Amino acid sequence: xxxxxxxxxxxxxxxxxxxxxxxxxxxxxxxxxxxxxxxxxxxxxxxxxxxxxxxxxxxxxxxxxxxxxxxxxxxxxxxxxxxxxxxxxxxxxxxxxxxxxxxxxxxxxxxxxxxxxxxxxxxxxxxxxxxxxxxxxxxxxxxxxxxxxxxxxxxxxxxxxxxxxxxxxxxxxxxxxxxxxxxxxxxxxxxxxxxxxxxxxxxxxxxxxxxxxxxxxxxxxxxxxxxxxxxxxxxxxxxxxxxxxxxxxxxxxxxxxxxxxxxxxxxxxxxxxxxxxxxxxxxxxxxxxxxxxxxxxxxxxxxxxxxxxxxxxxxxxxxxxxxxxxxxxxxxxxxxxxxxxxxxxxxxxxxxxxxxxxxxxxxxxxxxxxxxxxxxxxxxxxxxxxxxxxxxxxxxxxxxxxxxxxxxxxxxxxxxxxxxxxxxxxxxxxxxxxxxxxxxxxxxxxxxxxxxxxxxxxxxxxxxxxxxxxxxxxxxxxxxxxxxxxxxxxxxxxxxxx
Length: 498
Fold this sequence. Notes:
- The protein is an alpha/beta fold.
- Helix content is about 30%, strand content about 20%.
- The protein has 12 helices and 20 strands.
């Protein structure tokens, strides 16, 4: 019989005995009234956001998570978050969505000691080694570590009626209903050798990250698997934490040095607990070492000296650790004909972006809003009258959701992959649009070193608050051209004998 740990929102299922965990959808895990059930695979940021949205529309949401997350609120990293020990950035659009779903979250994090700063005012940015002009952007950088952010989202999500967490359990496959629908997930405890059992559900959401096996699971059921769009970047990080003292970095809260092929980069950001998280990065095999001396030498080679000067005077709290990311990948569930009803993917399980652009959490939040909108439209009907009820609300949801999520996913994908394809060492198709963008955007970036108006415009696009088309507005075009003309006029004459 399932057991719930009182007051924690944590459910411990009986997965060691015979028979399925629950006989089918409409059977509440704690013996409550029958209703609809959604199962979310993974207590990642994406999984928690999906569970938060679903909790408003189904009777029960069960989050299946392999890791023991009970200690991660106190700085313990979740094993399933491979990038969790490295620098993260929550873009402003992502922060806005989190604030909408969890009102007061920004203030709650600040009260817990998480630093926050206005982007470009309290932090420094460098493009091609040149500092972006400090300017008011209206953007807030919330500088929480991954464990602290996840802990806050997890506590808020599990406080929703019907939301439960199953820790120490992993998904090993899907359960079918007929030939086109998923009706649950097969789960197995990580400890012991108990056989897999079926956890029945009206909806299964894959939030298992870059290592998702969703396509393989669908194929095992005889269903179509999505094709993948991909770009190979061969990126690696090396990160280390340091004690933070007042006045370091001139009182700023962070510095970001853009990473380019042949031009190394990195970031140093203040975090809770009076710490700096310092991440060094390199692409196309130019990877930072993890021995302390090599780490320091790599930092010294960055095109701006802020990070190296910072770590020279700071006390290290641990040894450098590495993370490698080889390929950006977008699984095109939106193009499956037919798709599998009852199965969704979100976050990196849908699209894994080059983490240099810090888009992952924000795009996951946008995908969660797309899911919410699809559920709300089914609940109210097209005309605003009473819509579908109960499990009927989930019929056809996969097709609607993947189509809706493709919008924000595509916009972020274009920003990241266009930037990567700027460099000939990265294989990929470069259409006319990509070539034009990659000829123009570096000129905008160069102009931001002297023009705070352009700096504001570019950072608002980078933070996914404004669309990329903002950079093509007449005023932005004119300021970019004027900067280029001034640079030409100030260049020294060419000395062919020199």
